[in-house]
Automatic annotation (TrEMBL), chains A, B:
Protein name (Swiss-Prot/TrEMBL): alanine--glyoxylate transaminase
Entry keyword annotation includes Transferase: yes
Record organism: Aspergillus sclerotiicarbonarius (strain CBS 121057 / IBT 28362)
Catalytic EC class: transferase
Protein residues bound to substrate: 350
Positions of modified residues (N6-(pyridoxal phosphate)lysine): 198
Amino acid sequence: MSSQAPHPTLLIPGPIEFDDAVLQSMAHYAESHVAPGFVKTFGETLSLVRKLFQSTNPAAQPFVISGSGTLGWDIVASNLIEKGENALVLHTGYFADSFATCLETYGANATQLKAPIGERPSFEEIEQALKEKPYKLITITHVDTSTGVLSDIRRVAEVVRRVSPETLVVVDGVCSVGCEEIAFDEWDIDVVLTASQKAIGCPPGLSILMLSGRAIDTFKSRKTPPSSYYSSVANWLPIMQNYENFKPSYFATPPTQLVHALHTTLSQITARPMAERFAIHAQASERVKTAVAELGLEQVASKRENQAHAMTAIWLPEGLAPPDVLPGLLKRGVIFAAGLHKQVATKYIRFGHMGVSVTDPNRTDIDKAIAALKEALSEAKQAKGI
Amino acid sequence: MSSQAPHPTLLIPGPIEFDDAVLQSMAHYAESHVAPGFVKTFGETLSLVRKLFQSTNPAAQPFVISGSGTLGWDIVASNLIEKGENALVLHTGYFADSFATCLETYGANATQLKAPIGERPSFEEIEQALKEKPYKLITITHVDTSTGVLSDIRRVAEVVRRVSPETLVVVDGVCSVGCEEIAFDEWDIDVVLTASQKAIGCPPGLSILMLSGRAIDTFKSRKTPPSSYYSSVANWLPIMQNYENFKPSYFATPPTQLVHALHTTLSQITARPMAERFAIHAQASERVKTAVAELGLEQVASKRENQAHAMTAIWLPEGLAPPDVLPGLLKRGVIFAAGLHKQVATKYIRFGHMGVSVTDPNRTDIDKAIAALKEALSEAKQAKGI
């Protein structure tokens, strides 16, 4: 039994349902951010982030900073690329547009490589683009929360290393870290930025990043100083290194209670092999996608290989919009999200299936949601005479 | 009785002790950041921020953003001043140096007006400086956490309005909001930036700002776009306006659990007149400062009128350093902070007395701390043969 008050099950692509222990760990009594107790918690948390990314290379560095996932874009844009340098932005939905805007805010030239809605740029197009001009970095949205499109970051990284080996491979893993396979060292990735509130299962409020040795070196060889202050790697790098070595350090007060929550959830996640966790998410995803097909519905992510395992973006039947279906789901105790991709937002809904809702064998969230979707759709069609 | 596990009392100048109800409100079940329940909580929280600042002018705008207090500097530096424009930074300790660095990161020219340690620039010096060149903004650290020096922001604002009426008055209120008097509208202040974890009594992780109509107009008349993305007022202003009107809105996922905690603590704070709260802090401060004087100790803040009411920075007797005294305090169940001002950090300690430790009549934190300080000092002197 959960200690949480009765509530509808939150199955949007983040924030997600919380495990009781994670929630309760935020009720820790007040601590000094530089006292031994908290320093130990924070230091261990950073080491757990390495495990989350299956990384053992000491040249790589995890960061946990107070802020939303969006802050990770500023950290990339103001530290790893300089004014007038080029960024190649692979576009699979809403979030690439925003990342490109962020890069341009700090003076980079962002070139977007766009795919039709529900698809992703091909490896050939990526290779071609990389050969056209020197790119300081390439960004890939691992799972675009607006479309449910999954990118193959491993193969993109291979293409980059072959064609343009110095280009930094930057992964926006906000909706993928904790549920999609990421082998940070082995796949030779330079940055993964993410947030706490999706498959990691922590409340929102933490910007989490992993930087490779190559990324840190790129930062250190900048010709100009970092173009932000709060997002400056120069300010945060010594802090993270110190805490991980259990030495107190101060740049800005860390969000102590959220760090406790992150420590708890990462301890749970890394207590089992990451491969097992990815497999559980893939199985749950398969169940959802099979049920969606059985309802005669199509996914926004059009091909099997580009469908995320943590969420499903579902086209509604012609004549139905999200407000026709979401209240029927809520009535049945389930919360899905409306569409987010501006061009088609009124035509689809999003079902998030990650974290405790799929990993906790005592929960029946997914079955309940599939049943609710079937009933709510049928009710909505009847109401509209479809 | 507190529901919190037994622990030493945290009496540093932030984070501070938590009220049980504030801590427990973070254990709220997961919510969508755009669903009616959370939208109401966030909207009400923003209105409560207005009450905290005693502001009723609809042209002013509160902001609550995921981040530490430091993020507020970036928001000022990247939105309210442009490259090559001048900022006058009043220096009363460590934090002015950092704010100046932040302003310069985004291209402003920061001129620091410094006072000797423990003092503050005189009103005559401020007036003189304002006459020397046009300043886009002036920054004042209301209470410098490194020295315990209190600035008279009301009188500084009067000088600015008289001598250079267009200059924005920017107050760093990280260690003052919730314990030192601030009448945002009446004193004609343009920005107060603060954090959640000091006298507001919320866990760390929220950057809280109040911008005047003049500040918003200054932002809107920029010649260049904001020079950051996550800190951009252009990105956050519509979000805050929408939530306050109970309309869901998305730029970055808000830190839902911390917003609940802020809602709880601001509801508690604003349930009583703010004047009463300031008076309680002033009384507690008086008790601490009298006890410090009775122990024959001097304060870093040298004059009565520039001594903060939320903390006391105490010079240690000649021959003693913080590591000689802090363990003796901890042994007696009390945590103070070491010095922070680089030039003199080894010569003083800091005692924070704010929030529930002074406002909750059931707590004896201050008496316990005063007794512990007396004993720990005497023990330390004996050990050193002083």
